[in-house]
UniProtKB/TrEMBL annotation:
InterPro entries: DNA-bd_dom_put_sf, HTH_17, SinI_DNA-bd
NCBIfam families reported for this sequence: excise
Coiled coil regions, renumbered to chain: none
Name under which the protein is recorded: Helix-turn-helix domain-containing protein
Gene Ontology MF terms: DNA binding
Residue stretches making up the Helix-turn-helix domain: 21-69
Domain of life: Bacteria
Pfam families: HTH_17
Amino acid sequence: MESKIPVNNPMPFPRRERILISVNEAAQMLNLSKSYIYRETRNRTIPHVRIGSRILFRVTDLNAWIEQQNQPALQEQDCA
């Protein structure tokens, strides 16, 4: 008699947005070069996290950093 073992389909983990992204992904997200990203991390002008030798970025920190870079447009003065 052959015993059949039921095959369990593993339940997939719920898809979550990633918390940390790499230098390559940050460069793509910001539409900037990797060398610019590395320079800004070296100058500590862009928020980043170091884990061992890896440089990573929190997506939320990058979004906040983008907002801080916003330069408001100059309003035209009335020419009355």
